[in-house]
Amino acid sequence: MKDDRENAVSRTDRTIHKVVDELCRSDSYELVYHRPTEEKVMPSLDALTEIVERLRSVLFPAYFSDSEMSLESMPYILGAHIEKVDRLLTEQIKRGIGFSGDKEYWRATLECEERARNLSRKFIAAIPRIRRLLATDVVAAYEGDPAAKSTGEAIFCYPSIKAVTNYRIAHELHALGVEMIPRIIAEMAHSQTGIDIHPGARIGERFFIDHGTGTVIGETCEIGRSVRLYQGVTLGAVSFPKDGEGKLVKGIPRHPIVEDNVIIYSGTTILGRVRIGKNAVIGGNLWLTSDVPAGMRVVQGRQTDPVIMISP
Amino acid sequence: MKDDRENAVSRTDRTIHKVVDELCRSDSYELVYHRPTEEKVMPSLDALTEIVERLRSVLFPAYFSDSEMSLESMPYILGAHIEKVDRLLTEQIKRGIGFSGDKEYWRATLECEERARNLSRKFIAAIPRIRRLLATDVVAAYEGDPAAKSTGEAIFCYPSIKAVTNYRIAHELHALGVEMIPRIIAEMAHSQTGIDIHPGARIGERFFIDHGTGTVIGETCEIGRSVRLYQGVTLGAVSFPKDGEGKLVKGIPRHPIVEDNVIIYSGTTILGRVRIGKNAVIGGNLWLTSDVPAGMRVVQGRQTDPVIMISP
Amino acid sequence: MKDDRENAVSRTDRTIHKVVDELCRSDSYELVYHRPTEEKVMPSLDALTEIVERLRSVLFPAYFSDSEMSLESMPYILGAHIEKVDRLLTEQIKRGIGFSGDKEYWRATLECEERARNLSRKFIAAIPRIRRLLATDVVAAYEGDPAAKSTGEAIFCYPSIKAVTNYRIAHELHALGVEMIPRIIAEMAHSQTGIDIHPGARIGERFFIDHGTGTVIGETCEIGRSVRLYQGVTLGAVSFPKDGEGKLVKGIPRHPIVEDNVIIYSGTTILGRVRIGKNAVIGGNLWLTSDVPAGMRVVQGRQTDPVIMISP
Amino acid sequence: MKDDRENAVSRTDRTIHKVVDELCRSDSYELVYHRPTEEKVMPSLDALTEIVERLRSVLFPAYFSDSEMSLESMPYILGAHIEKVDRLLTEQIKRGIGFSGDKEYWRATLECEERARNLSRKFIAAIPRIRRLLATDVVAAYEGDPAAKSTGEAIFCYPSIKAVTNYRIAHELHALGVEMIPRIIAEMAHSQTGIDIHPGARIGERFFIDHGTGTVIGETCEIGRSVRLYQGVTLGAVSFPKDGEGKLVKGIPRHPIVEDNVIIYSGTTILGRVRIGKNAVIGGNLWLTSDVPAGMRVVQGRQTDPVIMISP
Amino acid sequence: MKDDRENAVSRTDRTIHKVVDELCRSDSYELVYHRPTEEKVMPSLDALTEIVERLRSVLFPAYFSDSEMSLESMPYILGAHIEKVDRLLTEQIKRGIGFSGDKEYWRATLECEERARNLSRKFIAAIPRIRRLLATDVVAAYEGDPAAKSTGEAIFCYPSIKAVTNYRIAHELHALGVEMIPRIIAEMAHSQTGIDIHPGARIGERFFIDHGTGTVIGETCEIGRSVRLYQGVTLGAVSFPKDGEGKLVKGIPRHPIVEDNVIIYSGTTILGRVRIGKNAVIGGNLWLTSDVPAGMRVVQGRQTDPVIMISP
Amino acid sequence: MKDDRENAVSRTDRTIHKVVDELCRSDSYELVYHRPTEEKVMPSLDALTEIVERLRSVLFPAYFSDSEMSLESMPYILGAHIEKVDRLLTEQIKRGIGFSGDKEYWRATLECEERARNLSRKFIAAIPRIRRLLATDVVAAYEGDPAAKSTGEAIFCYPSIKAVTNYRIAHELHALGVEMIPRIIAEMAHSQTGIDIHPGARIGERFFIDHGTGTVIGETCEIGRSVRLYQGVTLGAVSFPKDGEGKLVKGIPRHPIVEDNVIIYSGTTILGRVRIGKNAVIGGNLWLTSDVPAGMRVVQGRQTDPVIMISP
Lengths: 312, 312, 312, 312, 312, 312
Known about the structure:
homohexamer, alpha/beta, serine acetyltransferase, domain 1, UDP N-Acetylglucosamine Acyltransferase, domain 1, 2 domains, five-stranded parallel β-sheet, 10 helices, 15 strands
């Protein structure tokens, strides 16, 4: 018995040796290994999580931390959060450049650091504007949900506010040309809320997504003011043009334009560069690939006979 | 070069000063600042997470912690969990009152504390009943999913059991009139499972949601016994009546009634105060806004021609 | 006042006594208590989380940890991860056997341990193959999403890669006959991404799910190479045959076969053992319960009149 | 075999029952149970640790945290630390009053809270003075130790600076009449450095203890400016007067007075209300119970023959 | 420049390879490698820390955790702590046996487990007795220190109570014949308080060590009731008899016997199997290697001329 | 009442404003502020703690972590630890240079990084030698303490081994010319064990300190092979020469030389550049400032009359 066992043990370890050898051959790792040449360190999820949490504490004072903040202590607390965000974000932006940028550029380390510092600074300057937008989103959440008891409840526990906060942060960074980081911040909210908003989308004030799970908003969407979506709504692309070599052409406008005051109910998919006009109301579970004029109410065809009921 | 750099640094910090000043002006913070007057401290997500984890340990002994609990040690372990839940919950209920209640009431601190203590005590008394219900939900999960190997597997890793456990806890608190806290507990499950059940909904025993992502159950739903749902099902409201001033009327019955033994397949949306009769089977991807008589099987219209296939 | 308060306190505690007594009666706990007889300890979520994180670090070197790993240090770092995975996994597999297995088998502890050790070893040997598959999934993600900037971005932040990594790990364990553990690993990804892939499904190389929230892939699915899905796609079972005693027959093939190069757009449900032929393109929001020949493009019927627009 | 084992198990648990019963009898717990009547919650070691760490960050900016603090961000960072210290300290002072105070006083909760708030505020106002003193202690450490490379090294890693920082904080609180808390803060440093300074002692500027392990400074010591001690020095009491009932009389002056510029070498014990005059130098391993005039150098008697050497 | 750098990098890694090879040769590791054959896992410091903390919570209810414990909830809370201690301790005792025991005995795993279970059970049964002793130690601390304000203060922050609690736990385990574990528990207190009491020493009730840093109590000491020590006291051995092969004879009585009511002041060393009679008072900084009759007061010789004062 | 309270609140906050202003004035912070110019970031205690823990795991395999390490997995585990130590240590050495070095040198960042990398590499190469020395220390501990049961017990729980391990690491770094870091590593052991060994001291193999609390070994000590010390031993300097400006001359030899096989008992102080000859045995509580010839046994003078006993 003992012999068998020792045998087993040594066999195990030969397995490890063999597997390690195989994994360290270049044909195994070449596609999946992040070569850390030139100090191109990966962005840190922990740092980005801290950045977003501190920003949330700044945007909605006394809700998520510092819950006894007085008006008198507010400047110190917000200032300390912002100062820390500035330092963390500078580093993460630099890593994003390193991750995405070309090798030659990255070489110029000082220049790269300077650029990261500048971008962080510009983002910081935009925080008051981001808060103004979010304040309108909070009002929209409260007014749009009959189950909402107060704006405070919306701030504290609505997934829409969480996802839209991450989006508005990520969008600002995206608009500044920050690489990689906005996408990660958006995915953090996607994972927690099931709401997937690409940082490139442009969304006006008073935006609200009720329930939200499964809602997807594509990279080139343009959404007006006071728009309300429900869970499972897709604002996507209908086809992906390819270039001469058969590769996807990246970055061209291919998602819907949704104008002011539009409502889109749950489960509806709208694809392509179509325009949903002002005040339109789009019913649920629809599949739309063409424009909707302003003011229209769109419902599933043949409402009189949508389903068949079969008695047992 | 050095001068530029110092310049950059000081510019940065002027940015911080300027941003802090702006964020501390009342027109910036008025809508988004939780004024901590009168000690109205925000509920604590950490405490609520601990409460739910301890309750899960009490409801399903030896599954999620205390994995070597014997029958003899059970009273001590459950008793210690419950005693801690009682203290934590009393505090959180008090904060919920402070958050939601009017100012004058909150003033009467002792009265408020007494009320929180009473509500927690009533909740504690309901734990055995909640466990009885959950035991039926576990059986329903095991019997309803061909992939399930044992009831233990359902308890340990089915999102349905996780979401329904949070719901049954939150519903009990909601029924007792606890403010704010039930909603947070429901959102915790929503974030983890993608299942969004409003604490106000009433759901009978043997309830099961397979897969579950994207399923939404509204505030005034009434769901009977042995109901089974799939992912992406919405039981929602069709329209929101407004009062004379154009504001949403809150709290009136506006979601479906689903009677015993009904099955609703994935992606279907049922809206409004309609009644789905006993034993009805509702197909997937449907849009329903009217009653379904008992025993009916409902499928998408024109089954013979649901899609068009186009050869290339 | 004081008397009332003391009264209240003692009443509270009688509540705890009463509730504990009730919860410790066998009719209360019998369905929900994991009896730890014979040392059948529950699997550990923490250990499984560590296993998956270490495997992710091995599969995608320098992306998720060890971010400055050089080629020279790679063998040590991967070897240490794998050695730890081997030990942790052996223990968890043993617990899975204990949880699921019959009592007599479990008794033979040494045999059970030996079996766990063997299974872990076989899994370790499969890691290079898993990495080869995942490398093709990464390429598919990059090529399939116009918003993707690099394969690195896909590895680092796409929910599809996260979910498919967990799936490929879980599937390997499932194919080896490991109990319980694969399901838990799959649920971990489901909770984080909203993508629910049963470990039993068989999925070919170059697999990609865009956005992914709400997508469900059933236990007996067979998916070919270069298949692309979108969010909210269900590949499910249409009915569950019952045996003579009215119980579900478990494990028989009941989910779709999806052949190479198929694309299925968001919100579509395909049910039953149907076959979707090579190169087929299935539109969104569809409900399909029959075969689709190779090369077909399937869209919603009556594209000319899918919705009704009502002017106000 | 199995029967024996089950027997063993049940015997175990009877042990637990029996032990719990015994421990819950009043004759067992009466001397060692902290009755939590009237909300007299114990002080929190975690909160006190955080308070001391934040104060250390304020007193020595950029040494122990915030290591990239610029002059421009300094006010925010220090302000945020101080604001948090103020809130934490108010709570801990209140608990100290509850712990030590008489029952009637504690009853008047509002008054007690008001008092705690006032004491915390007074402590905050003293921080600049505490820093001024510590700056002189840092210089003394640097100048007094030939192994010291810079004042920064002394701040960052000398046990003397750690212990004296805790002492100066604790002494300020003690002088304000704060109960219990100063003693705990002093013990925290004692545990880490082996230096035991009672918060009641009065110590002038430029104070330094080299190595420090085992040095004890009693409650009523008075120590002048520029005093230097070594490890194992005791400044203690020689006898404890008892009152008519044979109980120790607490609080009367009973420890040495050490005047300016005195040096006391390692292992020396000085007991009672003696006076060590200015500029005196006290050798090591001495036992002193009487005054030493200013300027004296005190060494062990019979220096010519202190030890006997015995050849083997 | 670049070449040099790459060169440097590869040289580094050759260093690692070379060092690893050297460290993995048997002549390097043979004396310092804990061979984990036969599952002889090392004791866990984390588990032992948890055991001691839970015991402290049981011995002094509501002081160190559970700070709002009522009489009614006491049985649950203490019971849960004890149940957990029982399980953790059984495992650690087993590891102690494995660490110290001979190979053949350890082989009989079941027997070893049974023995560990029995020892843990016997320890549990002794907890009430340990608490009775500690209650007398608390009174001694309060009565013996003029600076003590209450027994609660002594329980909460005196190093003597912390060290003696660990000692009384460790001594009980030592007396039961538990291997290795008692020593670790004693060292935990030594590290935190500077008080080093060997678990083998026998110490009567009402024991107190003031300040305590540097006090050492040897393995075969016997200390009576109401003994009080100060910092820096050594109760040690004077010489170590060797056996025929020149090896130390281990375990024979070689430390002092200290009878009831003795006081020993700071810095005094007493060596060998001497007897300090009842009520004796031993001065500080002494070196004693012979018996002291009961009732004697011992001071340093030549009190009239202990030191020489040299004027400058 | 309310007015008073608000008044109190605003007064509080004026306190904070005032204190912050004062602390941010240059005359307040100039001596205690670590100016982070030129990115001279402080060393990290967390990183240094990790470095020492990983080294301990390398030096004593399977004792402190990786407790199931087999011979086959040893290279991976040790290699991964060493690789991580190399990276962490390079960074900390760099910070040490920044902290201590002159401004101009630090400027040349690349050169500084290169130097840190080289120093770390040299330290790594010395690990096998450090282990060889520590293996002799372990044997000395086992042979020198009659209470020791095995070398394993000494490795796992003797403060001497902990302190000497830190010392041998710190000494190697000190000998390489690393700034600041060695001192911090030495202080970490000092805080945990009460043993204070300056990294500059030179200590031969087979070194053991029993109990150890309060033992101090100065910067320029030279200690031979097989030396044994006890608690409270000081090997210090007798006087500090000053230069022409009255400042201490730093770094000259001023501590004792202790030759092979010397034993020094507890509480003894030896000061100055004296030489304690081979095989000498120095008794306890002595004060020595002159040479001791080889082979001598030194005891306190007048052994026949060391103390006076006074009958009551």
